[in-house]
Amino acid sequence: MTLPIPAETDWDKAPGLLDGAMNLDLSAEQCNLAYWFRGVAQGTLRDRAESGHTADEITPEHMRTDGPLRDAQILELGCRSIAEEEGTRALAYYVAHATGIAEMDFFATQLMDEARHSMVFRNHLVEMGIPADELRSTITKLSADYKREVLDPILEFALRAVREEGDFIGAVAIFTIIIEGVLAPAAELSERKWNLIDPAASAIARGAAIDEIRHLTVGSSIVKQHLDRNPTYRDRLMDIITRGRKLWDEIPDKKYIMEREHLFQEGMHQHAHLIGDYELFPGQRLLDTTAEERYATAERWTDKMAATRLAYMGLDEAIEILRLT
Ligand SMILES: [Fe+2]
Ligand SMILES: [Fe+2]
């Protein structure tokens, strides 16, 4: 008997990232290895295993031509590719220190997802004309400051919990609430922004978003289950969340996002004919937005998503601590 592809891993049926992360309830037990092989490897990735997009989802010539639009995408995908790579390396410790088999198997699949994201983000730069033999050096150079100032401190925070302190659940909370919780809205914004301008990149982003729904919901359910069974863990968790918030306030991530948003702004107006009346979200034309407004939108989405998911975990008192706007 052939089992169907679960709707949330089906390319055409899966919800958007924010919608899925706010409304779905998935556990590590549900999202086991068989689920991943069937739903992701044979579902989400059908016809998209090599590059993250189909042959029909093209990289248009304007993405291969020098200018601010191409520079914005190179910066965005270069930095995100390194973020996924560093995430993959960190997740190896989650696999090593997972407290149960369901959790170990789930993090093995998440590790594979993030390694794939890094690969498809990186390889799109080759599709945009960066010579393959210069890819590594190009990415290393453009992401060096971002890695040092943003990625290293947050991943160090996660690794300290899982590796040094032996607190697997705390480390899951850091990855789910602090790291991916804040990166997810930026990812949603990216998918919507590039939709008409760079169909290959938009498909790559859509595939990553489908995976991200699973990472956010399963991570939350692992934390929730633990908290339900061990109510005394709450104090430790609140301490982690408070320290995570403090860390975010010290990290200059906005500087890096704004640099690419300003480039995108310039490039978007040069290619206004491609975008037309396309709406970033209902009632808001992309062409009418500014870099600052798009950043503010992502922050509002972060808050909304965090509030829903923290309430699901029974952590209502953390909502105010994490609020960005
Ligand atoms: Fe990812
Ligand atoms: Fe993820």
Topology:
Elements lengths: L16 H7 L9 H12 L23 H30 L3 H27 L7 H30 L3 H27 L4 H31 L4 H17 L2 H18 L1 H4 L3 E3 L2 E2 L5 H22 L5 H5 L3
Antiparallel strand pairs: 1-2
Helix pairs in contact: 1-7, 1-11, 3-4, 3-5, 3-9, 4-7, 5-6, 6-7, 6-8, 6-11, 9-11
Bound molecules: fe (ii) ion (2 copies).
The site of one fe (ii) ion (FE2) has 4 residues, from helix 4.
Task: Please give the alpha-carbon distance between the first and last residues.
Answer: 50 Å
> In the CATH hierarchy, what is the architecture at level 2?
Orthogonal Bundle
Query: In what order do the strands lie side by side in the largest sheet?
Result: 1-2
Based on CA inertia axes, which overall geometry fits?
globular
CATH topology: Ribonucleotide Reductase, subunit A
Rounded to an integer in angstroms, the radius of gyration calculated over CA atoms is: 19 Å
Number of domains: 1
Estimate the helix proportion, in percent: over 70%
How many helices does DSSP assign?
Answer: 12
CATH class: Mainly Alpha
